[in-house]
Design brief:
This protein is an alpha/beta fold. 40% of the residues lie in helices and 17% in strands. It has a domain at 5-131 and 166-190 and 253-266: Rossmann fold. It has a seven-stranded parallel beta sheet, sandwiched between helices. The protein has a two-stranded parallel ribbon with strand order 7-11. The protein has a two-stranded antiparallel sheet with strand order 8-10. Helix 8 runs antiparallel to helix 9. The longest helix is centred in the last third of the chain and has 15 residues, at 233-247. The termini are far apart. It comes from Streptomyces albus. It holds the Pfam family NAD_binding_10.
Length: 281
């Protein structure tokens, strides 16, 4: 009998790709779900689109655990996610691990409503609430593009600090939450080992790359308008509001979650910058 699979939704994304790779490395059967059913080494690619319900049942076939990345940029992901999650439970899924955010508590806006519903839908569950990704400064994020284009990071965070976290660490926690004998059955706030301001980040990037990087401080309105060129206006307002909360100290914290679940300390921002940007010198 074929072993049940883990469905990884968003398997080509920042955390989904890393989670799928680690699961296959540990010999778990993985269905890698993305809109184009892109190949993922060692996994079975399946087409999945949150907004195309015809893709949902085939993706769930033979699955007993799911890793859930919400639809990007949707201010009301619960509208599409909750019907899918009810379908998943009816199809035999017993464990669900949801990617949320440290800024969004259970019952809060956007994915917070999915978080709130999850314990009532699945007997085994976890909600990952990572802080801001370190890869925002090294990948395809607006911050990373600004750094490459003109050496500038733009935010409305002021001097507020963030416990930035490595996407590799998030994926390792996701694998443990998906495959350990006992599910966490709680939410997990994930951070790196230190809280840094955006000025601190710019200084580290300058040292690592050998090129000047500066933090340009925007107002929330300026940031909202800038983001509205990239994402829907309502979502741009939510993101700008999160920066405002950072400026007030909402993300100035570190947790021991990565250490507890993986058995090793989380990676520092300098370590990740050196790993991913050292060739930029």
């Amino acid at each position: 009998m074929t072993a049940p699979a883990v469905l990884v939704v968003g398997a080509t994304g920042t955390t989904g790709s890393r989670t799928a790779a680690r699961l296959t490395a540990e010999s778990h059967r993985v269905k890698a779900a993305s809109r184009r059913a892109a190949p993922v080494a060692g996994a079975e690619p399946v087409r999945f689109d949150w907004y195309d319900t015809a893709t949902h049942a085939p993706a769930l076939e033979g699955v007993d655990r799911v890793y859930l990345v919400p639809p990007v940029g949707d201010p009301d992901p619960a509208a599409v996610m909750l019907p899918f999650l009810r379908q998943a439970r009816a199809a035999g899924v017993r464990r669900a691990v949801l990617l949320s955010s440290s800024a969004v508590p259970s019952g809060g806006p956007a994915v917070g409503l999915v978080h709130q519903a999850l314990p009532g839908l699945f007997p085994e569950w976890a909600v990952l609430r990572p802080s801001w990704f370190m890869q925002n400064f090294t990948g395809d994020h607006l911050h990373a593009r600004g750094i490459r284009e003109d050496g500038t990071v733009r935010s409305a965070t002021g001097s507020g600090r963030v416990g930035f976290v490595d996407a590799d660490d998030i994926a390792e926690v996701a694998v443990r939450a998906l495959t350990d004998d006992r599910a966490p059955d709680t939410d997990l706030v994930l951070t790196g080992p230190e809280a840094l301001s955006y000025d601190d980040v710019a200084a580290v990037l300058t040292e690592v790359t050998g090129r000047p990087v500066v933090h340009h401080r925007l107002t929330q309105t300026q940031l909202r308008d800038r983001l509205a060129a990239e994402v829907p206006a309502e979502f741009a307002g939510i993101l700008a509001g999160m920066d405002g909360a950072i400026a007030q100290g909402a993300e100035d914290r570190v947790t021991d979650t990565v250490q507890r679940l993986t058995g090793r300390p989380p990676h520092s921002f300098r370590t990740v910058a050196e790993r991913e940007l050292s060739s930029a010198r």
